[in-house]
Amino acid sequence: MAAHAACSRQPLRRRPSCVAAIAFAAALAAASAAAQTLQSKARESGCVDAPRLVEGAMYKCTTSSGASAYFNVPDGGERPPARRTGGAAPAGGNAAASQPAPASFPRVDASTQKGRDEMRRKVLQDELAAEEKLLLEARSAYGNGAPPALAEEQAQPQRYAERIARLRQAVQLHERNVEALRRELGLPR
């Protein structure tokens, strides 16, 4: 607003530069709002590193537990530039993204890549089996929301409620992990 007031005092021949300055300030404000939205989504997702653009409006980051978190940032005008995490090149516009890799870029033959893919799939399947086991254990400890109260919890109902909340959170965490691993493996949920 101060820039606008200063521009109104300018002679008519100098106002176009003021208009450009106001437009630039508005663009910065929009970019800042988009960045705040990106940062707030990252905070909601529990990110411990900077979010990286995956594709379109989808971002990826690492949580404190070491898991990957994915989230969308709704289109609210311009978004700040973010690093891509791989995948296909963006659809359109960027000539540098469509150029082939340099000759010195390391290449992997098909059999080596197939071996890596099989190893990755095996690791994911092992993680899924371990996570399903942990989910079963968490569900049995949760006892459908009504586990038996421990001796010290009978005198203090608040402790019992806190333990139930922790158990429910553990069940939800393992359910999300199983779902994410199934999605990564391409299995039905």
Describe this structure in words.
With 189 residues, the protein is mainly alpha-helical. The protein has two domains: 74 residues, no CATH class; 81 residues. Helices cover 55% and strands 7% of the residues. Strands 1-2-3 form a three-stranded antiparallel sheet, with no helix packed on it. Helix 1 runs antiparallel to helix 2. The chain is flat and about 70 Å long. About 3% of the residues have low confidence.
Q: Which terms would index this structure?
A:
single chain, 189 residues, mainly alpha, 2 domains, three-stranded antiparallel β-sheet, 55% helix
**Overall pLDDT, averaged?**
77
Main sheet characteristics: 3 strands, antiparallel
Find the structural class using helix and strand composition: mainly alpha
* Number of strand segments: 3
In sequence order, what are the helices and strands, one letter per element?
A: HHEEEHHH
Task: Kindly report how far apart the N and C termini lie.
Answer: 53 Å
Helix content: 55-70%
- Indicate the proportion of strand residues: 5-15%
Q: Which geometry do the CA atoms define?
A: flat
Radius of gyration from CA coordinates: 26 Å
Query: Which parts are unreliable, with pLDDT below 50 for 5 consecutive residues or more?
Result: 76-80
Side-by-side strand order of the widest sheet: 1-2-3
Q: List the domain count as a whole number.
A: 2
Count of DSSP-assigned helices: 5
